Predict the structure of histidine kinase.
Amino acid sequence: MKNLKIKHKLFMFIIIGALTTSLLGYLFVQQSQKLYEQIIYREAEDRLYLFSERIEERLKEIDNLSISVLADSEVQRNLHIIKTSPDVYESFDAANKLKKKLLSYHLSDYSVSFIMIIDSNANLHIAGIDAPNLDDQSKAHFRDLGYRYEGKSVWVGGEQQDDNFYSVRDIKEIPDLKLESLGTLMIGIKSNKAVFSSSRESSYYDSSLMILADNRTIFPSHSTLNPQQLDLRGLRQYNLVTIDGGLYLATQFTMDYTGWTFIHFVPYGSIFKDVTIMKFVLVGLYLLVLLVLLWLGWRFSRGIARPLEALMNKMALVEKGRFSVDHPEAFTNRDELTLLNRNFDKMTEKLDMLIKENYIKQIQLKEAEYEALKAKLNPHFLYNTLESINWLAKSNGQRTISNMVKALGDMLRYTVSKKEFVTVQEEMVNLQNYITIQQFRFEERLIYQMDIPADIRSLEIPNLMLQPIVENCIKYGVDAETGRCEIIVCAKMMKDKLIFIVKDNGPGMDQGYLIRAKETERLSSGTGIGLHSIDERIKLLFGAAYGIEIESGVNQGTEIRISIPVIPVKTIQSSVG
């Protein structure tokens, strides 16, 4: 906290207050939803219980109907005739009478799909519609099922017809209490009619009902749910389960009458749709209030901290040497911080004006010194004297002296030239004249090499930039033991820079002399133009990014690198024009 800025401290205080309020509101919403969920769970459980009770009553009604059918004396008599006289006319007549009797029972209850009897000869006697067409294996299965339960009613579903429930019961011969099997009675009822009292009830909350018998789904007929995928052992009376990525409220109940297990699935989103919407609305309002508070807090803290930050930034720029304000910030407030910023801007503006005035005066002074230095080397009588000496040397056949004098005259003309910029080719010619003069002195001990590409020779450079540096190399770069001096002058272009390199194999310079050479010492007593002066001249012309760099060491020679911008001839001519 100690290192935080003022605006951050204020903003943090506002955030803590807003978050605390929002958190309390969110906890209240969560607790309210939990209470509502408990009420819904209990309601779903009670509803399923009533649901299963109604289904049980409906199945008992069908069982009562089956008792009436099998106890009917006419039914008993006709089945007895069919069993004892299967191949006579009486058997055929008894089958017709039996079918009419079954039809009368079917008409008494329209919810029954069909009533069917499998007689002792495995013949079918059917009244109603949608009766299954049983093969011999299915007939034997249902007869065995009814016989196994010894006349009791057994309910099956999902067999033969997926959308029907069957009440199966063995028909015993009642007269004389023989209790011999006369056949098997099957009463079928549509599963939807047995489960739902109306179509509207089936779409309650987009819910779905599953009925299991022996861990096998008997309702609905085409269920996508696999009972093996549900952990029914861990399922309580109500629980939340995930099916195909969806969350459901599952309630279960086992009917004692049939042993079937009822599982009611209600989509969690459908139950809590309104609650979820209200929850999102409240959370949205809390977030909106939080954002408004944060925005107001940020505006408040920023209004205090912004003038202070602006003042600190200006002070940092002044510390780096930038006194001018490019775009002064316009503060609309009239408090103490705004007045402090305005006064600081006025102070830096005055300082910048004074510094610029002093800088311009320094530049003018340097230019005056440079012009005065060139004026010292401008005695016109030297031209005539050197011409006379050259004519006399030629007359006496002294070609060596004549060449030396001619080179010296050309150097003088080049030195006192009024041109600020010359081509690299012109500088090379002047440098060659100087080398010609020095070779008369050193002869074969002076080894000179110039490697400047042709595309660089047409570029412009400041006048007298290379010759003083080469002169310094000859003066201080002669080997003490051999008296030899090797000098290499080369140039190259790197992006937008033109770099000249002057190297010698002399004894080099120690660190102390190197520092003095970079700062104040002169490179050559012959010209009077020091390395520091050349470096300042380049920086005045082109900026601080250009200038001279020196690399040297004792007995390692010296390498001087001069960097200037690439200046085509047209650029200089246009700027002069």
Q: What stands out?
A: DSSP finds 16 helices and 17 strands in the chain. Confidence is low (pLDDT under 50) at residues 521-528, 573-577. The two ends are 64 Å apart (CA to CA). The CA atoms of residues 291 and 312 lie 29 Å apart.
